Structures are given as structure tokens and as C-alpha cells.
Amino acid sequence: MAQPRVPSKAELSSLPRWAIVAFAARCAERVEPLFKRAWPQAPNSHVLAVRRAVQYAKEAAARAFADIDEAKQIALAADMASHEADWGDEAVAESNAYFAAHSAANAVGAIAYIDEASGLAYYAAYDASLALSSISKETDSVIYKDFELLKKLTQDQNWTSDTRIPQQLFSLYSEFDDNVLIEHEAARLEAYYAWERAGRPSLSKDEQERMYFEALERVRQYTQSLRLLIQSRLE
User: Fold this and answer.
1) How far is CA 35 from the centre of its chain?
2) Cα separation values, 210 from 34, 109, 140, 179, 204, Å
3) How many other C-beta atoms can be found within 10 angstroms of the C-beta atom of residue 110?
4) pTM of the entire structure?
5) pLDDT per residue as tens digits for the range 150-173
6) CA 183, CA 122: separation in Å to the nearest integer?
7) Which of 120, 154, 221, 229 has an alpha carbon within 20 to 30 A of 211's alpha carbon?
8) Running DSSP on this structure, what letter comes out for residue 115?
């Protein structure tokens, strides 16, 4: 497996504290849907732990504040999910489930362990890159663009260690690969309809496929509209 090209620890250390956390959260968010996709039988507690870790990191960066003890507990729960995915079931060993959960754990770890924030953010990006490589060839450039955006805004807007990083920042400013977003949303849809099939066995296979592809087409339309909105704001 090729080594991913992600921002180095030294590069990440040039960002203010909450920009580092926002970057790590962004990486973890990109791959969070892949946890359930790679490990369909994952205990619900693990699915929720990974999801909570991603959301907690995003919210902490937006507030520029977090309870350190709480962050440690949330990071530990996501880390436990990653190790059970890696070793608890041979069917998912070395899979995206491990990388997605470990990325989330590192994102919150960047909050809890301030002196190690840049290193933990690096590993959040590294894990995310390994997971994303299974759905896109543009993985490294997408992750690096997130870093470059934060670096530019830090310089242009004189961000400090107290600067709050809005949760919607990346969607408003980043350029992104349509295919990555579509695959990301497709993973969410796939997990959702797996749950729907379990709860509604009366649906025929044709009906299930029709619902899925109708929803996926809406994702494609949304992606195109969002790209046009972002481009208009950047001009």
C-alpha cells in the first residue's frame, strides 16, 4: 500500500490550536460513513462512538473550547471501536472500519492532548487517507487542500489559538472532488437502506434499488448545486 501524502506534523504545528482540531475533524468526517460500510455488523455503541467523536471535534473547534476530561473519554470510546474492528473480527481486520474509527479517535485526541495535537492530527489525516484511497484516486490532494485552506485563512485573517473555526467553513470555501462527495454520500445511503431493508422486508429488490438510485441522483444534483454556490462565493 502506497504511503499517503498528508501534511506533516511540522506543517500542522504551524496552524493555531483549533485550526488543527478542525483539520483533524474534517479528515475524520470524510471517512466516518465508511466505518459502518466496512463493518456492517458493528455494535451500535461503536457506530455511535465514532459518530460522536467526529461531531465533538467539529463542535469544539467551532466553540474554541472543550472539556479535556470529556474529550479523553470520547477519544477512548472511538479508539476502542477501532481496535475491535481491527482485531475483534477477522472479517474486517485491516479494513476501513479501523481507519475510520482511529481517525475519529485521533481527532478528539488532538483536543485532549494539547502538546501532541499536531501529531494526532497527522494520524487522523493518515488514517483517513488510507480509508479514502479505496473510493478515490484524489485522496491525498483533497486532504492536502483542506490543510492549505486553513493555512491560507490563518495567514489572511490572523487566526490565533483562540479563533473559532465554523463547522461550515470547508463547505463554504473548499474546492472538492465531486466523486469523493458522491461516494461519501453513497456510503451513507448504503448504510441507511441496509437498515431500511431490515426494518421493511416487504420491499421488493426492485423497489429497494429504485429508492437507492433516486436518492443517489438527488445527491448528484445537490453536489452540482453546492459546487456552483461555492464557486460564486470564491469569485
Assistant:
1) 10
2) 22, 41, 33, 21, 10
3) 32
4) 0.73
5) 999 999 999 999 999 998 888 766
6) 23
7) 229
8) G
The continuous run of DSSP H or E covering 182 comes out as helix 178-199
Cα–Cα dist 121/22, whole Å: 9
Listed in sequence order, the residues at least 6 apart from 182 whose beta carbon sits closer than 8 Å to its beta carbon are: 216, 219, 220, 223
Rounded Cα–Cα distance for residues 181 and 136 (Å) = 10
- Report how far residue 178's alpha carbon sits from residue 101's, in angstroms, rounded to the nearest whole number: 24
What span, in angstroms and rounded, lies between the C-alpha atoms of 33 and 31? 6
| Grid cell at residue 172 | 463554504
Inter-residue contact 64 to 18 (CB < 8 Å): yes
Question: If residue 28 lies in a helix (H) or strand (E), which one and from where to where?
Answer: helix 17-38
- Asked if 165 and 151 touch (Cβ cutoff 8 Å), the reply is no
pLDDT digits over 55-100, tens only? Answer: 999 999 999 999 999 999 999 999 999 998 865 554 544 588 999 9
Contact 216, 186 (CB under 8 A): yes
- What CA–CA distance (Å, rounded) separates 133 from 180? 10
Beta carbons within 10 angstroms of residue 134's beta carbon: 15
